[in-house]
Amino acid sequence: MEFLRPTSWGEALAAKADAPGAVPIAGGTDVMVELNFDKHRPEALLDLNRVGELATWSEEEDGRLRVGAAVPYARIIGELGGRLPGLAMAARTVGSPQIRNRGTVGGNLGAASPAGDSHPPLLAADAEIEVESAARGTRMIPAGEFYTGVKRSALAPDELIRAFHVRPAEGPQQFSKIGTRNAMVIAVCSFGLALHPSDQRIGTGIGSAAPTPRRAFEAEEYAAGELDWAGRSPLDERVARRFGELAARAAAPIDDVRGTAEYRLHALSVMARRTLTWAWKDYLNGGATACA
Amino acid sequence: MERGETAVRAEIALRVNGEERRVVADTRTSLLDLLRERLGLTGSKKGCDHGQCGACTVLVDGRRVNACLALAVAHQGADVVTVEGLADGDEPHPLQRAFVENDAFQCGYCTPGQLCSAVGVLAEAARGWPSHVTADLAADGVELDEAEIRERMSGNICRCGAYPGIVAAIREAAGGGTAR
Ligand SMILES: Cc1cc2nc3c(=O)[nH]c(=O)nc-3n(C[C@H](O)[C@H](O)[C@H](O)COP(=O)(O)OP(=O)(O)OC[C@H]3O[C@@H](n4cnc5c(N)ncnc54)[C@H](O)[C@@H]3O)c2cc1C
Ligand code: FES
Ligand code: FES
Questions:
Q1: Membrane spanning segments where (chain A) (predicted)?
Q2: A-chain residue closest to B136, CA distance
Q3: I want to staple A124 with a disulfide (CB 3.0 to 4.6 A). Which of A137, A205, B54, B156 is the partner?
Q4: For residue B138, what are the domain limits?
Q5: What is the number of the ligand closest to the CA of A97?
Q6: Would B178 be classed as within a structural domain?
Q7: Interface predicted TM-score (ipTM)
């Protein structure tokens, strides 16, 4: 197995163009499982750990945060938890502390598993993924268009993920995940929610309950219209329940070893109802963020 | 690009427990296999090779990681500390002492990983990193109570179920007195 070790972003793109079959490795928490079990013998690995800029984040002029693909979860939680509370809440449920010290959002996007925990909060917060190739330059892909199938994404073979761009939370955000125990569980299903008070909108993201992570558009529109943004009156229990039903309706789950489709639909409606209830309560209390 | 590194075998230079080590190894070698099979440091254990048990936990540049999920060649120049490097000469690390005093193991298979992980826990808590169960996210340091320790050690599994002793030992080493 060849081991390519670019030291700059330009070199990384050139290497990927030369060898589109080369498998990028960031934290390695997905790639190494495959290597150790010999599921996959890549012709080459492309180590991104020497490309320093991938492990940095910055504030952009458009007001968004640009977070490098290889910033590990532990740093997202520690350094960006206040501004990206939904993503930080999801990050805190990934694997174990050891996995969170190495695993990255870029790797989660690269793997594009429907169960990846970054996806619901990225969808709910309208994140965009910055990808680039040596031949065609930079593309910005909205999270909603990034996931194209089970473990498949819009990333072309000669492209690499450079960063994701996302607005700091301007309202409460929530993330809820169902698994069989607290640590190291792949989500049976998960739900991310973000309130966007300035345009009186709700963002959602569903995980593990369809071939790809996806938004629950009908639920978003319904709740945005029913919620009393200006008057800040309490959430009507019926609205919360209906929101849950509509969120579940957006899913297309399967039966698998982790749970049945029916269970997932039920769990989703409960998670959607609860996260909306919590987030709205925070909104009424004037909190910008939930329990970041 | 360092073209010299593109062969199937590569020279890997690491600092392990304070000593510079150099080995030529297959580029697919995990850090765990390198430590155990090439450097003779068999303290770190291979429980699953999957990231799920924590028995292979070591400190890389001060952070705890699963050595089975670390590609050795991707860690050129890294500073690695294994359980063999925790003691100060003949003087056990305070956590090692606390593990012995609190019966924090039975068969001992998970212990090297538990110890390295616990070193990471103390460092992370001192830096004020919150966990899933931390209530006060604004505090400078984190009070390591039982719930915090259990959450923070959740990446280390003990088949013998020595958890009460492990929690007590970490509490003691963290300066919180014994839990029992
Ligand atoms: C024990 C265990 C528990 C886990 N628990 C969870 C969990 O709870 N939730 C969860 O979501 N995941 C979990 N995972 C999976 C994994 O940790 C995450 O998907 C993580 O985000 C992967 O990041 P990484 O940097 O380690 O990726 P890597 O393994 O380095 O890469 C993953 C994939 O992305 C590609 N890639 C990486 N970076 C780039 C880039 N910049 N551009 C293009 N492609 C790229 C790689 O080629 C590979 O296909 C777990 C894994 C283990 C071993
Ligand atoms: S051997 Fe590495 S986590 Fe189990
Ligand atoms: S002491 Fe036996 S596995 Fe922990």
A1: none
A2: A291
A3: A205
A4: 94-173
A5: 1
A6: no
A7: 0.91
